[in-house]
């Protein structure tokens, strides 16, 4: 058997960190099936050249020829560009990658890190405000901009199931925190909250989640508690936008966005992706932290069932962090992407 992996570096530092993930996967040698990498296009830069951000060939390769993929980052402009739409949002939708799973963990002694953090953010990945249904009209108060926020029972149920499964995999008495704002948005967030709460009572569950402790946290106080006592959290499940925001906050608690991995997972496909963006402030200098990308490759392997090799990658990353002498500038070091990658490969 072979492992066919799509590589979509896209924009900015995505192009600098994805080669590190590839080198780490290659260094696993025969502990995983023979890997075959397929380079695929997407991104804003591609859009400026070709007029599309997500070419059809990329989607069809993922649907037909690949077992999994790794995505770098996109540079989506903050102003509206006619014809452009974020390819990562589109890809999650096209492949029905309905969950974004983001483990945030302190390793100990990493500069800027708070100790004893070990949580997983399970972010809904297909709806909420990110359906991007926005309109502009003219009213008595001048321009009126509106956005539609979609929360469906189906998407809330399947992200809820993913969250309970994630919690169960971490031990039968894990804690699951449902993040919402249903004191204000009682219809949309109310549906999310109730549907996730209803997962343990679904047919076929047969009590397997009974020992999981479920609590709720309004999103604003969630951020507060994450800064005050981040070590209490275990698994947190949130609608798309809250999940996006609390994951960047959580990344700050472990020292850098350059450390936090994720996978976009559906029922039939998985795509690893560092949580960070294209980092325009450091692009081109060869100093992007490659560890989030390498950890994303590990997380992708876990979702494909290769726990052992994934653990090897994670341990190599952790020991580079613990040694602390080969770090990129975001962690206070002065090493390059290549030097940090070489240190990981040496550990492997
Ligand atoms: P960002 O995540 O790119 O950068 C935020 C900060 O973290 C910057 O100071 C950056 O230097 C630092 N950082 C990020 N990754 C790093 C790494 N690997 N090593 C060291 N430092 C790192 O977020 P920002 O600046 O708000 O957005 C830049 C662009 O990225 C925007 O166009 C945005 O749309 C896009 N973006 C794309 C995402 C994706 O592809 N999934 C996610 C977030 C943002
Ligand atoms: Mg984000």
Q: Which helices and strands, and how do they pair?
A:
Layout: E1 2-10, H1 14-27, E2 34-39, H2 44-50, H3 56-64, E3 68-73, H4 87-94, E4 99-105, E5 118-124, E6 128-139, E7 142-150, H5 153-169, E8 175-180, H6 188-197, E9 213-218, H7 219-228, E10 235-238, H8 240-253, E11 263-265, E12 270-272, H9 291-303, H10 307-323, H11 337-347
Parallel strand pairs: 1-2, 1-3, 3-12, 5-10, 8-9, 8-10
Antiparallel strand pairs: 4-5, 4-11, 6-7, 11-12
Helix pairs in contact: 1-9, 1-11, 5-6, 7-8, 9-10, 10-11
Magnesium ion (MG) is lined by residues 244, 248.
Describe the structure.
This protein is of the alpha/beta class. Strand 6 (128-139) and strand 7 (142-150) form a beta hairpin. The chain has two domains: 1-95 and 288-348, 3-Layer(aba) Sandwich (Isopropylmalate Dehydrogenase), CATH 3.40.718.10; 114-253, Isopropylmalate Dehydrogenase. Helix 9 runs antiparallel to helix 10 and helix 10 crosses helix 11. The protein is built from eleven helices and twelve strands. The strands form two sheets. The protein has a ten-stranded mixed β-sheet with strand order 2-1-3-12-11-4-5-10-8-9, with helices on both faces. A two-stranded antiparallel ribbon has the order 6-7. This is Isopropylmalate dehydrogenase-like domain-containing protein. It holds the Pfam family Iso_dh. Residues 4-344 form the Isopropylmalate dehydrogenase-like domain.
What structural class should be given to the helix and strand makeup? alpha/beta
**Silhouette:** globular
Q: Give the domain tally.
A: 2
Number of strands: 12
Which topology of the largest domain does CATH recognise? Isopropylmalate Dehydrogenase
Pfam families: Iso_dh
Keywords: Magnesium
Protein name: Isopropylmalate dehydrogenase-like domain-containing protein
GO molecular function, one term: NAD binding
């Amino acid at each position: 058997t072979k492992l066919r992996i799509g590589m979509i570096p896209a924009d900015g530092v995505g192009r600098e960190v994805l080669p590190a993930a590839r080198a780490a996967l290659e260094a696993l040698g025969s502990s995983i099936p023979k890997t075959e990498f397929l380079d695929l296009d997407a991104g804003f830069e591609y859009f400026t050249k070709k007029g599309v951000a997500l070419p059809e060939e990329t989607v069809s390769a993922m649907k037909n020829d690949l077992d999994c993929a790794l995505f770098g980052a996109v540079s989506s402009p903050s102003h509206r560009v006619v014809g452009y739409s974020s390819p990562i949002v589109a890809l999650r939708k096209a492949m029905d990658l309905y969950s974004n799973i983001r483990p945030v963990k302190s390793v100990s002694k990493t500069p800027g890190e708070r100790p004893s953090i070990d949580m997983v953010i399970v972010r809904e990945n297909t709806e909420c405000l990110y359906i991007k249904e926005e309109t502009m009209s003219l009213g008595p108060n001048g321009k009126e901009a509106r956005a539609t926020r979609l929360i469906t029972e189906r998407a809330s149920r399947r992200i809820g199931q993913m969250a309970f499964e994630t919690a169960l995999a971490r031990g039968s008495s894990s804690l699951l925190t449902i993040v919402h704002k249903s004191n204000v948005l009682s219809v949309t967030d109310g549906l999310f909250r109730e549907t996730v709460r209803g997962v343990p009572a679904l047919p076929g569950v047969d009590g397997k989640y009974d020992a999981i402790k479920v609590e709720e946290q309004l999103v604003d106080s969630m951020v507060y508690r994450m800064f005050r006592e981040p070590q209490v959290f275990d698994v947190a499940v949130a609608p798309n936008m809250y999940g996006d925001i609390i994951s960047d906050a959580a990344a700050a608690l472990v020292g850098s966005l350059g450390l936090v991995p994720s996978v976009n997972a559906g029922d039939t496909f998985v795509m690893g992706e560092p949580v960070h963006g294209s980092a325009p402030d450091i692009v081109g200098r060869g100093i992007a932290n490659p560890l989030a990308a390498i950890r994303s490759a590990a997380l992708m392997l876990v979702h494909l069932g290769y726990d052992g090799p994934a653990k090897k990658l994670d341990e190599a990353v952790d020991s580079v962090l613990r040694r602390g002498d080969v770090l990129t500038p975001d962690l206070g070091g002065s090493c390059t992407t290549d030097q940090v990658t070489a240190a990981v490969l040496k550990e492997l």
